Amino acid sequence: MKKKVAVVTLSSAVATFYCKQLQELFGEHIIVQKYSLDNNSIKGTIDTDIVVISTDAIYGTVKKYIKDDCEIIITSITLSKKGFKKITEIPKGKKVMIVNLSLEMAVETISLIYQLGINDIEFIPVYPRIDEIPDLDIAITPGESRYVPKNVKQVIDIGHRVLDINTIIDIAAKLDLDDLLKKHKIQRYFKSIVTNRYGVEKLMGLTNRLESQFSILLQGLEEGIIGVDLEGIVYFYNESAESIIGLKKEEVLGKHVKELIPQLPFEQVLYKSKSIKQKLIKINGCAISVNVDPITTDKNLYGAAAIIKRFSDAEKEQHKLRSQLLGKGHIAKYSFEDIIGESEAINKVKDIAKRMAKSDSSILIRGETGTGKELFAQAIHNSSNRKDYQFVAVNCAALPESLLESELFGYEEGAFTGARKGGKLGLFELAHMGTLFLDEIGEMDLGLQARLLRVIQEREVMRIGGDRVINVDVRIIAATNRNLKELAKEGKFRQDLYFRLNVLPLNLTPLRERKEDILLLIEKIKEDLNKEFILSQSAQEAFFNHTWEGNVRELRNYVEYLAHLEKKYIDLGDIPFEPSKAIDSNNLNDMERNTVKIFKQHIQNKVDKYIFVLMELEKSYVNREPVGRRSIAKIAQLQGVFLSEQEIRRILIDLENYGMVEISKGRGGTKITQFGLKALKEIN
Fold it and tell me: pLDDT above 70 covers what percent of the chain?
């Protein structure tokens, strides 16, 4: 009687391809039924001997249609040797796109290529409806050429991914068709595909599936492999197992596994004849990830095999893949050597920060705007044990609450309207084993603070719309220019979160309290700008006596301004501020202070653009020269600030409505008012 096999995939084209493969390999011994989710072909219960599902991602959707007593196989896939050869011919170091039906399928294909040994090419996932198509010349696709962007010059179609040897063996075993594995057409198929790390070429010519499986597993795996018979006697033990367990082969072979390695759950598997997956045990104080499977042939139990791996190794592999696929740009660029200054104040802060880097506790960096809070955060990360992992930074004030929540925690597909297909990895997951830098933490909404507190306490996160808890190991560095302790007393910041973050407090010294560093900083900024000029004595005195409300950031702006003057000698009249006319932000009256508060709520995440325009107007006030929106637009372009002339016009109208500027008709330009000068100090 013919056996019935159901094939269920996401795409009907892939389902057709797999059905054809199985029919060719098993011929008249099976009847294959095809189902796919893209055309809703599943109408009722799937009544077959086994169901072959293409990926874990659709298992939950498909399971409800499968009979309880039906055997289920999740496919393992590989590439044909012909398709794999095309990839090996791509020059090393090249960046290419992998095009597939979805982000998940593209990532799976990339993971498969890495596992097959190609690690000298950078692959970028591309899929229909992607937000931004990368500008790349080469695209690799597994039979999905119709989704390749039109601008790609070279398309390499490697053909559909094919069922690997382990999947074919599992299907044959579950259908009692083991004898077919010796047939010429199946052996020919095995020779035509790339074996995925198990050295399965030895399968050819072997007559017993038990012998075949263990021979496959013992071929130089990174994982440790331990095989026992029905009595629990060890008769397979590879070199990786020696390294992980710490016992030599001659000490283990022929001995009862329970006497030597009692932590391995062989007894449960042999007794129940059921697999144990992803179990964590400890051996010699080291966390080990274990999978134990029964070995059967013709429904008879012959023994069990364990695949073991150091948990830390698995973590490193995950990090490596995350970095390659999703972590572009999430790195810390600066170290303590990049923090310029020789003053006692800055050296003291650097010494404290270096000691903090050795800890895994949360750090709260407090400092005025422009003191270099992220610079210190990056330096701490690069001096810590987490330096080989991601440094992920997010500005809590720059994003609305709902968007910040989805960025931090990620979301599942369909979690909300507009959610990306396939869901999204959250920044906590991306920063796993690394550092998450939360800038301007004081601006975070109270509701979101509660969720953040739970993640820090429990070291686990749940995506929006998800039901799965994900363990994360993240070091938190938070930064603020506000007094969180006072905000907590006022009920504007959670006190419990404040104490969680403030384990290691780091207070950055404002520039006005380390004036001996000003000239050093000016020289470094000039070097970065590749500009050269000399400050007169009176100009230096002006810099020393300035209040530096914007600290190093303000200093950089002024040095850039002087650099663009293209003058070799800078005198007092050239500097863009007058210390004697410095405005004290504390002299705002109650009405002005309230106006500034309403104004800040109005501009929200555009504050940097408004500050830029106000600062340019302040410079024109000091120089007694009116400035118009075209001039401000040109300055913005020179400084790399993205502000169109139309945007500047809207900003100036806003500022005039709040009494901060006066817009003259004709060529009179725009002038900042006294209230505007005071408001700038308050906002900045």
Answer: 89
